[in-house]
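pls read this protein.

:::
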Amino acid sequence: MPLQGRVAIVTGASAGIGAAIAETLARAGANVVLAARRQDRIEAIAKALEDSGFEALAVRTDVTSVEDTRALAAATLARFGGIDILVNNAGVMPMSPFAEGRVDDWKLMVDVNIHGVLNGIAAVLPTMTEQRSGHIVNIGSVAGRRPFPGGSVYSATKFAVRGLSWGLHLELGSKYGIRITDIQPGIVSTELFDSDANRPFREWLEHAWEGKRTLQPEDVAESVLFALSAPAHVSVSEVLVRPVDQTT
């Protein structure tokens, strides 16, 4: 088990990619802390993991709250005595064409997809810099390389994640031994598109991808595990993972 004894926080762990990452890291030997707003969901996943013999803790967390992310780090330290891994997975994607002027959607994406990442980083950095080790994994997107109509603001937030990841490596890598990875998935079958606001996009996606294969949450989780399992002197900076059938 390549992560035996390491302590990993996973945000957005109540479903989809986050839940798959938490389960994959637990099976790789990590003590896992599941963070999300839906407390009943993360508690159920944590219980299932513990019933299978793994160490898991559920902490209700709104990543847009500095207080919540600090409390998450404190709860992790209290239970496991350290923080080795942070997976910034929490994210939202309300499709928001500029012409519709859905400013609240734009603000929500910035709050969760950028501020949420920064809040998580700020919460774990004191521990990681003191111990002079750690690994921060940011779940970005192929959209962080190329925007698409209707998803420009979402793409902008993932461009930001890519820039943050690069800058974190420059500041924290050689000085503190902290590794940074930006995981960039393509189309994944998750509940990210299930909101009423995204219904037109979901219907288009279902038609466009009829008979084609998308990524599954477990595929993204395996990419995270790959990066985390690299030797200590190796920093896997970016992982772009797409379905074979994705042409963009």
Remarks:
- The helical segments are 16-27, 39-51, 66-80, 103-131, 152-176, 199-208, 217-228.
